[in-house]
Amino acid sequence: MATETAHAPQTNFNVSNEKMGMWAFLGSELLFFGAFITVYLVYVPRTADGPGPEVFDIPFTSVSTFILLMSSLAMVLALAGMQDGDLRRFRTWTLATALMGLVFLGGQLYEFTLFVQQDGLGLTTSAFSTSFYVLTSFHKVHVAVGVLMLGTLWFMSFTGRIRADGQGTNAVENVGLYWHFVDIIWIIIFTVVYLIPVDLVT
Amino acid sequence: MTDTHDAQQEQDQQGQHQYPPSTGEYWQIAAILAVLTAVEIGLYYAGQAGMAASVTIPGLIILTILKFVLVVLWFMHLRFDRPVLNRLFIIGLIFAGVLYGIVALITLT
After folding, report:
1. Looking at residue A24, which CATH number applies to its domain?
2. Residue A5 falls within a domain, yes or no?
3. Which of A107, A113, A182 has the alpha carbon at shortest distance from A148?
4. For the CA atoms of chain B, what is the radius of gyration?
5. Backbone φ, ψ for residue A57 (5° rounding)
6. Which positions in chain A touch B82 (Cβ < 8 Å)?
7. CB contact (8 A) between residue B1 and residue A1
8. Could you report the per-residue pLDDT of A129-140, keeping only the tens digit for each?
9. Residues of B in contact with A79 (CB under 8 A)
10. What are the tens digits of pLDDT across the range B36-72?
11. Rounded to an integer, what distance in angstroms lies between the CA atom of residue A48 and that of residue B41?
12. Among A81, A98, A185, B15, which residue is least crowded by beta carbons within 10 Å?
């Protein structure tokens, strides 16, 4: 950590360029997802006589949501392990975070398969289905990118680029910020898309 | 990280919360998040069972905001970090809100 302090380029705000860049990126991502959530809310009543939000499986999605929420806990515990110089704890919790991300992704893909095969809710079935798939798929892409970054961090801890002396802590923190962001976006999607009744949204 | 530590030193002098939070605090936040999620799901089913939407919808929105704020402040450490990072994030939130407001206005009219 001290090594990185000495070499990390600082902005005028006494914040590293990487961290400032990550927060600016996350701020822009809020607008990105805000646009897709807005589009979903506009198109949710337009089901073109096809399936609507009644096909959502709330118990199944609730479990997925819980897993993603707990992956955020695993992420901060990985960062805490890094800050304590405990590389073993860092590896364990990083792996746990990535695995929970994969379980979430698997669950979501399974749900998509059911929507398409059982309910006939395809990507182009209606404006509702398109806006739903685009919003949730972009979120899944973000989760997948997060899992890749976590896997990279995990491997880096074996190659010496992330070390117990604090080398690589900034990278872990920035990946953690990204992961938590993916989580807060799902917190919003879960309520807006799954829990709030459509007739009230419209 | 190190930026957070610098900010924390200032906060320590002002008697504010300590950075980094203990792992016990992280588990507590996670437990609160789990409970809030369970309440959300309970509200959903209460709505299905006939509870007034004037209760369930604001309840769901408040719980979502609470969960959002908890993750951002504690897990993303924004509570302990430089104010400029807060501003960057809030600007994004405001823009997203304005976008929604404009589209909602156009759709309603």
Report:
1. 1.20.120.80
2. no
3. A182
4. 18
5. -100, 95
6. 13-15
7. yes
8. 999 999 999 999
9. 20
10. 999 999 999 999 898 888 899 999 999 999 999 999 9
11. 28
12. B15
| Domain membership flag for residue A6 | no
CB spacing of B41 vs A58 below 8 angstroms: yes
- Is A169 part of a structural domain of the chain? yes
Does B35 reach chain A within 8 Å, measured CB to CB? Answer: no
State which residues form the domain around A88: 15-201
Which chain A residues touch B89 with a CB distance below 8 Å? 23, 26-27, 30
With an 8 Å Cβ cutoff, are B85 and A23 in contact?
yes
Q: Residue A169: closest CA among chain B residues belongs to which residue?
A: B1
Average pLDDT over chain A reads 90
- Is the Cβ pair A19, B67 closer than 8 Å? no
Is A4 a domain residue? no
Please give the share of chain A, as a percent, with pLDDT higher than 70: 92
Domain count across chain A: 1
Grouping H, G, I as helix, E, B as strand and the rest as coil, residue B19 is coil
> What are the distances in angstroms from CA B23 to CA A86, B12, B28, B32, B51?
13, 19, 9, 14, 38
Residue of chain B nearest A58, judged by CA positions: B41
Contact A178, A149 (CB under 8 A): yes
What confidence tens digit (pLDDT) does each residue in B15-40 have?
456 777 889 999 999 999 999 999 99
Check B91 against A76: CB less than 8 A apart. no
Pairwise CB contact (< 8 Å): B68 & A184: yes
